[in-house]
Amino acid sequence: xxxxxxxxxxxxxxxxxxxxxxxxxxxxxxxxxxxxxxxxxxxxxxxxxxxxxxxxxxxxxxxxxxxxxxxxxxxxxxxxxxxxxxxxxxxxxxxxxxxxxxxxxxxxxxxxxxxxxxxxxxxxxxxxxxxxxxxxxxxxxxxxxxxxxxxxxxxxxxxxxxxxxxxxxxxxxxxxxxxxxxxxxxxxxxxxxxxxxxxxxxxxxxxxxxxxxxxxxxxxxxxxxxxxxxxxxxxxxxxxxxxxxxxxxxxxxxxxxxxxxxxxxxxxxxxxxxxxxxxxxxxxxxxxxxxxxxxxxxxxxxxxxxxxxxxxxxxxxxxxxxxxxxxxxxxxxxxxxxxxxxxxxxxxxxxxxxxxxxxxxxxxxxxxxxxxxxxxxxxxxxxxxxxxxxxxxxxxxxxxxxxxxxxxxxxxxxxxxxx
Amino acid sequence: xxxxxxxxxxxxxxxxxxxxxxxxxxxxxxxxxxxxxxxxxxxxxxxxxxxxxxxxxxxxxxxxxxxxxxxxxxxxxxxxxxxxxxxxxxxxxxxxxxxxxxxxxxxxxxxxxx
Lengths: 419, 114
Prior knowledge:
The structure holds 2 protein chains of 2 kinds.
Chain A: H1 14-30, H2 35-56, H3 62-81, H4 86-96, H5 113-122, H6 129-139, H7 145-152, H8 156-172, H9 182-204, H10 211-230, H11 237-250, H12 276-288, H13 297-310, H14 319-332, H15 336-350, H16 352-360, H17 366-369, H18 372-385, H19 388-401, H20 405-418
Helix pairs in contact in A: 1-2, 1-3, 1-5, 2-3, 3-4, 6-8, 7-8, 9-10, 9-11, 10-11, 11-12, 11-13, 12-13, 13-14, 14-15, 15-16, 15-18, 16-18, 18-19, 19-20
Chain B: E1 2-9, H1 20-39, E2 43-48, E3 56-60, E4 63-67, E5 77-85, H2 88-96, E6 106-112
Antiparallel strand pairs in B: 1-5, 1-6, 2-5, 3-4
């Protein structure tokens, strides 16, 4: 009888991540114009495992097994097509001569050049942000169309179309599979970070739908960012800052909703549910991010998240520090959310009335007027100042503007509690 | 203790729409099932049969005919497990948990004559 520990098991998401690695490595060989062919080879490889492993058990080195099968599939395809494309006959020699470096098996491996190249291609500036996200999920993360569609609450056909158009575009532009020139590298890296943070927020701002899938997006964004941070090209302060930010925010995932999926605000969260280990890793990366002089928006946001993460309670949080972080953040990236949180920080430091005065300045902004969170924040600060009738009015305004069921329930509860 | 053979027909759903994650989950279900049986000493052996290479031999007018290969169908045996069980009832219980059932496969259960 086999001892449990000696039976090979699969690391979580191994197939997904192996798929991403194999797609990247094979695309380097086959070229971007054959991306779909490569995706087929990888899919066939994974299915081969599904046909064999149930009987034979999981091999000692699953990643090595998959890569070997993928190479053999690739050779079959190449031999079949070699007549048509001269390039392919050269590839056959390369693969047969074992000149291909195998993707590594461990989850914590540093990102290979191939995967980073794939990520840079997915985040190419000629593609729209939504297409970039879908393409990275498909090629680097090994999600399939149905999973991407579920994550973004869109029909599968929409995602499939986006991907086809993206591939056509990249093909039409004769995209080469290579890392961007050094002169472009940092700029392109910024796009990669934007895409990763968008991916994270898609998961973090759980709207409707399956919470599980969405948490998965958060962890996928963190996984990819860790890979980038471990690559020599990605070892940049802002990469560590984003990684710190995502980890510190994700550490609160379990405390943000109750058993019914209802929202629990930061002030009311059970802090013992925060993931301490994740906070430690987040703080570590925040430390790493301070090398160099750069102060990105991720640095400031991570700094704010860190002040929350180490605070014993909402009241004892270093609000003065947070206020000053928001002041700097607003100079770099004055997003609506940052403006609202700035007002909340003012309220915590200088009192609710001061916070309300700050919020009132935003009322003239037409776009913000339609933003339900502006009204929800007004409600919160009026409530704290004891003005329940104004608070109720604001919550009702917010209620009229939100389309999100969870937020609706939250606002209705608020209204009931002050009625 | 008797031995039983489980013929897996149309075993795994090899639909190309399965995602990497779903494929891993399916493999995980088999692993968990096999590990449980192995821990109880109930799993004797298992083998996968090669796809699309089967031949059917028969004799006609004193001549051996070799037919095939045949295209894979839902009835094709994809592989087999040999298990140990006290009796048919126990073998049925074990087989009920075979993951290929939940993937649209059929399992033929036969006792091996001892």
